[in-house]
Specification:
alpha+beta, 5-stranded mixed β-sheet, 72 helices, 46 strands, 40% helix, 12% strand, globular, disordered N terminus, disordered C terminus
């Protein structure tokens, strides 16, 4: 034992009530339907069921059953942690059979089941564990709470959030432990302990799982000690058993079964070096075979279960030692391994065993022998061998195979990769090995726990049952977090122990059966148990001869109130204590032997399940009782005082005081709680050496208590027979002279009482004798000044908290007594000023001997000038410098907070809270603090404090939040002190920053921002589905509306955006494809019926061309508008191709066989229909793999729809959730559409991230990406096209060289022999071009590493034609033989390659403004050359050229026309042969191309110039179409150009729903006949979809990626009919979705949660085209692209202002827009929303403010509800501002209240109402003069000083201040008048105070105190001298600076100071002249 256990003299405390305890789970299991044992018990005799050895013959009794059952159940309890602090509860995890029950219950609520789990096999263990789940975006980890249920073959893990996992176990597990990082598993040892490990290296024994989905990995350890050095190795010692793990600090305690020692390890993540060291390849040659063997063996065992059942090891090997060799293997085990004799198996890293003789031989041997051979024994081993020879039973299954099987099996196995370890244990401390005989060896600890003592030392305790003692190892956390230092070990005799966490103590069950409380290693007292057990537990009845030593030997039990003084007896220990210990030693054994057989009454067997201060006692009778150990204090004040005492006193003294107090406070039958403070004062003062009986006020304290604590304490123990030696010992002590003289009752020997009285030197009849002395030998006597100092600071702290201020008055009694005795006059004066009526009652003082004054330590912080926090704040407000204010770290948090707040905000020191703290605060150094770091705050929040250019108010608010300060705290700050903070909050509320965290917004009271911030944090944790308000559309009335798939688009927001008309309904009508169309054909007289039917069907066929094209537009219209229900399939509207013919509504059907219908006509339309349905799903929805598969249709005809659905899921990002297995499934079906949808979908979902698995998937479908020798796969052509585009998407913008090379050659892929590559070549070439463009998107000429490919030149050649180049590399093989169908020769077929090459160039050089490339794309300038180019290619070239020269695009007609070559614009020479058709076509197509470029440049911007320009061209083309002369131009060409211009317009106006574009779309919707084919309809309805993109919530982006997507989707060649994919794959039309981005900002009223209108002010950054400009928009509105904006601001006056600054970062606004664009706004008071009051005429303020003077009277309290929705204010108006019968008399105060309320509401600071009322109350009380304390005047003074300071600065910033009204000057004046009147009448009182005379107790004294406080006049006792010589006003002014009185207040004192007796006249002069 390194430290002596300090024993408090045996006292006793009372425990709380006993309750019988039954685990709740047991009852639940009994009633659980799954309790199969019940059914079995009915079927079988009990014995068969329970006897494990199959001895069914014995009939088991029922008792046997219950015993067996009891053995299999187990439970554990813990403190409930749901994050709710208020109500603490207990959680229980109970396991029995196959069940685990998690229940919760508290004192107030009965237990209830939280979750119950039933598993397949018996539960071995169940435990709680927290797993850290790494978040994808950053390093932050989210901790998930889980329950782990361990079965023999697997672990079930269930999280609180509802996920569950199942981890299979590759080996038998003996134990599972929860740690900070995850689970630790201990592997069961296969063979018995008697058996040696096989000669291969032993396998690791301890493994970790960091997350249920992670692999199980072995743990490495880093031993300490000179022998092993710091070698890192696996934990592979089978003798190391884990006995305890802990999360905070993260440690593991293990026990070595051979050495019998315990070791403490630090558990941490493995470092990179350690990992590589462990996995390093073998170095020494000998090691190779075994190294590979071991690692392969382990890995294969962990990874595949086939070897699990290899048979167990063979029997004992005699003395042959299997010693492994010492090389390092890939799994790097320790060199020292198990030896059959087991004297000293190496436990990796248990400290080096230098004392073991054989260790060096062993090390030497192990290097000498090869692994397979048995080593000869050596001397060290042979001695013990005999004892270890019992052969083991065979047949253990486990990881260790038998000797021969190891070598054979594992050598045959291929070496697998080793498993990487995750965690490392590092040795911190190990027990010393006992050198004595074997019997002394400590056995394994049965219980290990952490505890701490009252002085915050931490101990790790483990209970060794065989020795019946508890070892307490002290540990200190060092600066390095992972390192703990273990300075000392102490042993306490104990049979059992349990920690009591929240009272810093532990409960110990001693051998004799009594319960004792220890704090750390200090014995506190015995626990007296209430009735059911008390007689039996003390054991006195049964063993009389033991009673004296065990119970009462050293208890001076019979002393009257002496137990207060008993503390210091360790100075002279009781002579009896040795006797006590002797006795226990003698009797221990015999007493237990006797007792265990008596069984007369139950005794305590063990303690279990400690939670907080509750613990369960298990009795020998099997009953369990729950007992509650009382806390150290219940009153807040006492707790705080104890904290302060503990802080300042040296550790030993503090410990004694606390133990002493604990015993007094909790004595059995002790006082009730209300007397706690009196008891504390008595105890505390007695310890300081006071005689509390002699002081009048402390004596009164005792009479308040029903019984003196002493007497009460004795009553509970009537049977004490004291012994004489105790008594003599007491009489000899030096306390007995001061013992109080109350008659003592109880079982005290009556003869002794008079002795006590006679010995008393003072007789009891002179209690107030003034010559009371302090006993200088009292334990706390030397520390009185220090204690006084800290309690004074505590008093100042209490003054700053309204909730604790009432307690300050109790504390002040104690303080004034100490201050008097220490002769600190100023302090007494300060207390008198605070509580004048209270302090003047006290007059007594005690004398401290001059001789012993030297023994007192006067701390430096106890200054003669008392620190007063109000004074400090006041001088701060007046702008005077003051010294730093002292504070106690961790105790005076409020002081620290407010002092620094004032320093920051009032003094304006930016660094007050960071670097300059010590200018303002003086931190007290502790008496005993070992830790320097101070607990930073009560609730540290997540706010990052960052100050830059922010105003002081902002800095203050952010800093307060970071300190955990909330509005609740602010309410408890006194009103005067809080005013500056409220003012700062008020300023911030006006101009908040948008990105403040939730806590800050809460503090400044902006609910709108709070809600916004809350949404942000929610979103970070998981994608939230709904937004704050519901976008649920109103239920539709007609049933048939359901099916058109556009139901979800109509909701409140669209109603706000387009409130004037029904355009949304109109769009819905135009786009619906699920109802039959109307076929109206008039039957001409000459037409036969049969022909008429054909005519109708032909008409229907034309209409169907339109119907089939609608879904593409519908998909864009309903984009991301629906959250699917995971339990229902997605509703897909039908594509209805029938018609109804009027007048009878007869059905018209295409399938009647009257006309020819193209085959497969509906394939692609139904694909588009599926896409449209899938695109409704919002990206934020919860969609998983199962749901996607669940939607798969049963009927094959719907397969195309499903294919479209898959593509849509890819476009909205959900397809990444589809399992690879399902993807494979879909592709192997070989359904062409499904493959197309899937490939495009997967690629879109993985846009631009070069995902390897997706690349492989796509490459299979592209012959060019497969190796040349691979088998020819028959991939349908369209699937190849989709795959090529997929490559472009997956590698978008990466500039990947190999793919670019392949795609470049694929643009010009020649047709092959047979029929390959011959049909639809154009679409393949185009796809390759688009893909190439995407891969190199925007790279321009900086294509890294591709210069040798000559990409631009090659593309130019593809564009204009020329000789084909030789094919490079891999593709040469493929194209050896030319095609037999198509003769191309060796020139490039431009018709095929031009579009792809043109667009590839455009995308590679997108926005680069590269003029040389752009010039390649100019239209030719001679007629001859023009004839050679298709007009369509001219469109593409113009488009390409314009988007390369991005910055030159201007939104006007001149620019568009400038693209037409000069020759077409000039006058024509008639002699030339000009083909007018060519010219007209060329001109139109070039115009269309330029318009298209204009549309892309201004996509989504709603730019009015661009729109007007495009609209002009649209009108021109419309006119041209209506001319008769369109034949020259060709209808088709005009229509194509017009469609492109329409698309360009809808791109510019995307999402805005512009009416003019809608009219155009509707016009084209109506045209169905003639040349209007499927493609044109598709174009027009896409334009309509883009115009209302996502129901107006989305618009288009102009990022490179978006432009690329739009080029793919809006390629200007539309299909001629529904099966046409020749020039462009139809599926690509949907890629337009990739260009959509949410930019709709919806203001939502935070009170009603309804969307509303709000005025926004949007500021654009300046660019080269325009300067910085600001526009006003009425939200909900689409914002411009964010990178163009500088700021978005919600403007007043209706709503609180809110600005989102985008110059810093756009992330905040982006995240708002992604989540439905919800921006919370808050209406200002008295304003109505725009919807109700568009012009703002109805506002209540408008009427009131115009007549400011009469405003207050005109204000009707009834009208309050229009101003504010706060219930508190409304009820205030209801009850305090209305005149009712009873309140007639108080008419004026009602007026005042109304005025206050009006002021608060109109100024928007309702939280000021309490302040106004408090000021009014204070002034009223002062007028009547009924004050008990001067606190309100302090507050008034602070308010006035703040006001004055603001006024001095001028009224410029008047809008910042809170108290702007006339209210304050009026109140101030009232105070001045009241005090001046008093002064006029009572100047004599002031004079006598200044002369230092003792004041009488009367109302004058109270008023005087008020006057002194309010006028800030210092204590005059010491200024008297300075004033001696003053006889004139001037003198006085000169000295005013020394006095420190403000001038204004000094003037009021002039007459008194100059002591002119001339009466009041002289007083009037200064008053009138200077009154302010």
């Amino acid at each position: 034992m390194s430290e002596v256990v300090y024993e408090e003299t045996a006292t006793m405390i009372a425990a709380g009530d006993l309750q019988s305890f039954v685990p709740f789970g047991r009852e639940h299991c009994r009633n659980h339907p799954n309790a199969f044992n019940l059914q079995l018990r009915e079927l079988q005799p009990a014995s068969e069921l329970w006897s494990s050895d199959g001895a069914a013959g014995l009939v088991g009794s029922l008792q046997e059953v219950s015993l067996q059952e009891r053995e299999r159940e187990s439970w554990q309890l813990r403190k409930g942690c749901t994050g709710v602090k208020e109500d603490e509860f207990e959680e229980e995890l109970y396991t029995a059979g196959n069940m685990a029950v998690w229940s919760q219950g508290s004192r107030t609520q009965a237990s209830s089941v939280y979750k119950a789990f039933t598993v397949d096999s018996p539960v071995q263990q169940a435990l709680w564990c927290n797993f850290a789940v790494p978040q994808n975006n950053n390093d932050a980890e989210e901790v998930e709470q889980m329950v782990c249920i361990v079965q023999s073959s697997c672990i079930n893990v269930h999280t609180v959030t509802g996920k569950d996992f199942l981890s299979p176990l590759p080996f038998q597990v003996s134990n599972v432990w929860a740690t900070k990082f995850g689970l630790l598993l201990e592997r069961k040892n296969a063979a018995n302990d008697t058996q040696p490990n096989p000669p291969g290296e032993p396998l690791p024994t301890v493994f970790s799982i960091l997350h249920p989905l992670d692999e199980i990995a072995p743990i490495v350890c880093k031993p300490s000690g000179p022998f092993e050095g710091s070698r890192v190795q696996y934990v592979s010692d089978s003798n190391m058993k884990i006995v305890f793990t802990c999360c905070q600090p993260s440690i593991v305690v293990s026990y070595d079964t051979v050495q019998g020692t315990h070791t403490v390890w630090a558990l941490r993540k493995v470092t990179h070096d350690e990992r590589s060291m462990v996995l390093r390849c073998p170095t020494e040659p000998a090691g190779t075979p075994l190294g590979l063997m071991a690692s392969g063996f382990l890995a294969s065992h962990l990874r595949n279960a086939s070897h699990l059942d290899s048979p167990g090891g063979s029997g004992g090997l005699g003395s042959a030692a299997g010693i492994s060799s010492a090389f390092s293997s890939p799994l790097h085990y320790s060199a020292l391994h198990s030896h059959p004799s087991r004297i000293m198996t190496s436990s990796p890293g248990v400290h080096s065993r230098v004392h073991s003789p054989s260790i060096s031989n062993m090390a030497a041997l192990s290097r000498a022998h090869s692994p397979g051979m048995a080593a000869p024994s050596f001397s060290g081993a042979s001695r013990f061998n005999t004892s270890f020879h019992s052969p083991s039973p065979r047949g253990h299954h486990g990881l260790l195979p038998s000797l021969n099987s190891t070598a054979n099996e594992s050598m045959a196995m291929p070496a697998m990769e080793p498993i990487i370890p995750d965690l490392c244990v590092e040795q911190l401390w190990s027990e010393a090995v006992s050198a004595g005989c074997q019997r002394e060896m400590s056995s394994q600890a049965s219980k290990v726990f952490l505890t701490s003592d009252l002085c915050e030392s931490h101990y790790l305790c483990f209970l060794v049952e065989s020795h019946q003692h508890l070892r307490c190892v002290k540990f200190i956390e060092s600066n390095d977090v992972t390192q703990l230092i273990f300075p000392s070990v102490t042993t306490i005799p104990a049979k059992d122990a349990a920690p009591l966490q929240n009272i810093d103590a532990m409960l110990v069950l001693e051998a004799c059966g009594s319960l004792v409380i220890y704090t750390g290693i200090t014995r506190v007292s015995k626990v007296h148990l209430p009735s059911p057990l008390s007689h039996s537990i003390s054991l006195t009845n049964h063993l009389p001869y033991l009673s004296t030593p065990v119970e009462t030997v050293s208890t001076p039990a019979n002393a009257g109130s002496r137990h207060i003084h008993r503390l210091n007896e360790d100075a002279m220990p009781s002579p009896v204590s040795e006797l006590k210990s002797l006795n226990i030693k003698q009797h221990e054994a015999s007493f237990f032997e006797d007792f265990s057989f008596q069984q007369a009454t139950p005794y305590i067997l063990s303690l279990r399940d400690p939670v907080c201060n509750r613990v369960t006692l298990e009795l020998s009778s099997g009953v369990m009782l729950r007992i509650c150990i009382p806390e150290i204090a219940t009153s807040e004040l006492v707790k705080k005082c104890l904290q302060a005492i503990r802080f300042i006193l040296p550790k030993e003294v503090a410990m004694k005081v606390l133990v002493k107090w604990y015993n007094i406070y909790n004595a059995p039958g002790g006082p009730s709680a209300h007397a706690e403070w009196s008891q504390f004062v008595t105890c505390f003062m007695t310890l300081m050496g006071y005689n509390t009986e002699r002081l009048a006020w402390t004596r009164h304290l005792q009479f308040e208590v029903p019984l003196s604590p002493v007497i009460a304490a004795k009553k509970a123990r009537p049977s004490d027979g004291g012994s004489d030696e105790d008594w003599d010992y007491l009489l000899a002590s030096h306390y007995h002279r001061q013992i109080n003289s109350q008659p003592v009752c109880g079982s005290v020997d009556p003869n002794n009482v008079p002795v006590a009285e006679k010995e008393d030197p003072f007789s009891a009849d002179s209690p107030s004798s003034s010559s009371m002395k302090l006993e200088s030998s009292a334990p706390l006597f030397p520390h009185i000044p220090a204690l006084f100092g800290v309690l004074h600071l505590l008093y100042q702290e209490l003054q700053l908290d309204e909730l604790h201020r009432a307690r300050a008055s109790s504390l002040v009694c104690l303080l004034q007594q100490l201050a008097r005795d220490l002769q600190l006059e100023e302090y007494v004066d300060l207390y008198w000023r605070d509580y004048p009526s209270l302090i003047s009652c006290f007059t007594e003082s005690c004398i401290i001997d001059q001789a012993v004054i030297g023994q007192m330590h006067r701390p430096s912080f106890l200054s003669s000038d008392p620190p007063c926090v109000f004074n400090w704040l006041s001088s701060c407000l007046r702008g005077e410098a003051s010294p730093p204010f002292p504070y106690l770290p961790g105790i005076c948090q409020r002081t620290k907070l407010l002092v620094l707040s004032y320093a920051l905000y009032i003094i304006g020191d930016d660094n007050a809270t960071s670097t300059n703290v010590w200018k303002y605060l003086l931190k007290l150094s502790a008496g005993q603090r070992s830790r320097v770091s101070e607990p930073n705050s009560r609730r540290q929040s997540s706010v990052k404090v960052r100050f830059s250019s922010e105003s002081l108010a902002e800095q203050l608010v952010v800093w307060l939040t970071s300190q955990g300060f909330t509005l609740k705290d602010l309410e408890s700050v006194p009103f005067g002190v809080a005013l500056p903070i409220r003012e700062a909050i008020y300023q911030c509320r006006e101009q908040p920053s948008s990105d403040w965290p939730e806590e800050v917004c809460l503090l400044i009271g902006r609910q709108d921002l709070t809600k916004q911030a809350h949404k942000m944090t929610l979103a970070k944790s998981k994608a939230s589905v709904g937004s704050g308000f519901s976008l649920v559309p109103p239920a539709s009335s007609e049933a048939d509306e359901e099916e058109d798939g556009m139901l979800d688009i109509i909701h409140e927001v669209t109603g706000l955006i387009w409130s004037q008309d029904l355009r949304i309904q109109e769009v819905r009508r135009l786009l619906q494809s699920s109802r039959p169309v109307r076929v109206s054909v008039v039957q001409q007289p000459e037409v036969s019926d049969h022909e008429y039917i054909e005519e109708k069907e032909n008409k229907l066929l034309q209409l169907c061309q339109r119907t089939m094209a609608l879904p593409v537009g519908r998909g864009l219209f309903t984009l991301f508008s629906y959250h699917p229900v995971p339990t229902e399939p997605l509703p897909v509207p039908k594509l209805n191709l029938t018609g109804r013919a009027p007048p009878r509504n007869a059905m018209v059907d295409l399938n009647s066989g009257n006309i020819d219908v193209p085959p497969n006509m509906t394939n692609w339309p139904s694909f588009h229909n599926g896409v449209a349905a899938g695109l409704k799903i919002a990206p934020a929805s919860q969609v998983d793999s199962a749901w996607i598969a669940y939607n798969k249709p049963k009927s094959p005809e719907l397969a195309n729809e499903y294919a479209g659905f898959l593509m849509a899921l890819g476009l909205n990002g959900h397809l990444t959730k589809l399992a690879t297995l399902n993807i494979h499934d879909y592709l192997t079906k070989g359904h062409e559409m499904t493959s197309i949808g899937l490939l495009l979908g997967v690629s879109s979902a993985k846009l631009g991230i070069m995902d390897m698995s997706i690349t492989r998937l796509l490459s299979i479908h592209i012959p060019a990406l497969l190796p040349p020798t691979s088998t020819e796969l028959d991939v349908p052509h369209n699937v190849q096209v989709a795959a090529v585009i997929g490559i472009g998407l997956v590698y978008q913008g990466t500039g990947h060289r190999h793919n670019a090379e392949v795609l470049l050659s694929e643009i010009g892929r020649p047709p092959g022999p047979e029929m390959e590559y011959c049909t639809d070549r154009e679409s393949y070439s185009l796809a390759a071009g688009l893909a190439l463009g995407m891969v190199c998107l925007g790279h321009g000429s900086n294509l890294i590493g591709m210069t040798d490919l000559n990409v631009p030149e090659q593309l130019y050649q593809y564009m204009v034609g020329g000789h084909r180049r030789a094919q490079a590399g891999a593709s040469r093989e493929r194209h050896k033989s030319p095609s037999y169908q198509i003769k191309e020769g060796d020139t490039i077929n431009v018709d095929v390659t031009c579009p792809g090459a043109t667009l590839a160039l455009a995308m590679i050089y997108l926005k680069t403004n590269n003029r040389s490339i752009a010039d390649w794309l100019k239209p030719p300038d001679t007629w001859f050359l023009l004839d050679f180019i298709k007009p369509e290619f001219l469109l593409l070239r113009t488009l390409a050229r314009c988007i390369i020269m991005w910055d030159e695009i201007l939104p006007n007609t001149e620019w568009v026309k400038s693209n037409i070559p000069q020759i077409m614009r000039g006058t024509f020479d008639p002699s030339e042969d000009i083909n007018m058709d060519t010219m007209a076509q060329a001109q139109d197509y070039i115009t269309a191309g330029a318009c298209m470029a204009l549309g892309l440049r201004f996509a989504g911007s709603a730019n009015s110039d661009a729109f007007d320009c495009l609209y002009e061209f649209a009108k021109t083309f419309m006119k041209m179409m209506s001319f008769a002369g369109t034949a020259a131009m060709g209808y088709y060409n005009l229509q194509t150009c017009l469609s492109m211009i329409l698309l360009a317009m809808s791109m510019v106006m995307a999402g805005s729903g512009n009416l003019k574009v809608l009219q155009l779309c509707r016009f084209f919707h109506k045209r169905t006949g003639g040349e209007m084919n499927y493609g044109f309809h598709m174009a027009h309805h896409m334009a309509l979809g883009l115009l209302f993109l996502g129901g107006g919530r989305y618009t288009l982006s102009t990022s490179n990626s978006a432009i690329a997507a739009l080029l793919c989707a809006l390629y200007p060649h539309f299909p001629a009919h529904s099966t046409d994919n020749r020039y462009h794959l139809q599926a690509l039309r949907h890629l337009a979705v990739l260009a959509a981005e949410p930019r709709l900002l919806v203001p939502v009223d935070v009170d009603s949660l309804k969307p509303c209108y709000a005025l926004l002010e949007v500021t654009y950054k300046g660019t080269k085209w325009y300067n910085e400009t600001t526009v006003e928009l009425m939200a909900p509105t689409l914002l411009p692209e964010l990178h163009l904006l500088k700021e978005v601001k919600v403007k007043g006056p209706r709503y609180w202002e809110l600005s989102l600054n985008l110059s810093k970062e756009t992330q905040h606004l982006k995240s708002i827009l992604v989540r439905d664009g919800v921006l919370y706004v808050k209406l200002r008071a008295g304003q109505l929303p725009y919807k109700d009051d568009p012009q703002g005429w109805k506002s209540l303020l408008a009427t009131a403010v115009s007549h400011r003077n009469s405003g207050v009277t005109a204000f009707k309290p009834e009208a309050i509800s229009t101003f504010t929705s706060e219930p508190a204010l409304i009820s205030f108006a209801e009850f305090f501002c209305k005149t009712s019968e009873g309140l007639k008399s108080r008419e004026d105060s009602l007026m005042l209240f109304s005025a206050m309320l009006y002021e608060c509401v109109t100024q928007e600071c309702p939280e000021m109402l309490p302040t106004y009322i408090a000021i009014e109350q204070a002034v009223g009380a002062l007028r009547q003069g009924d004050f008990q304390q001067t606190f309100p005047l302090w507050q008034l003074r602070l308010v006035v000083e703040l006001w004055d300071g603001r006024m001095l600065r001028g009224l410029a910033n008047k809008h910042d201040t809170l108290l702007t009204s006339e209210f304050l000057p009026v109140m101030k004046n009232a105070v001045d008048v009241a005090l001046d009147n008093w002064l006029k009448d009572h100047s004599s009182v002031v004079r006598s105070y200044m002369r230092g005379e003792v004041l009488s107790r009367d109302a004058q004294a109270i008023m005087l105190a008020c006057f002194l406080v309010y006028r800030s006049i210092p204590c005059f006792r010491n200024t008297q001298a300075k004033l001696e010589g003053c006889n004139s006003f001037a003198d006085l002014l000169l000295r005013s600076s020394q006095l420190g009185i403000p001038l204004r207040d000094l003037l009021r004192l002039v007459p008194i100071l100059l002591s002119s007796a001339s009466g009041p006249q002289s007083l009037l002069f200064p008053l009138q002249a200077f009154s302010s």
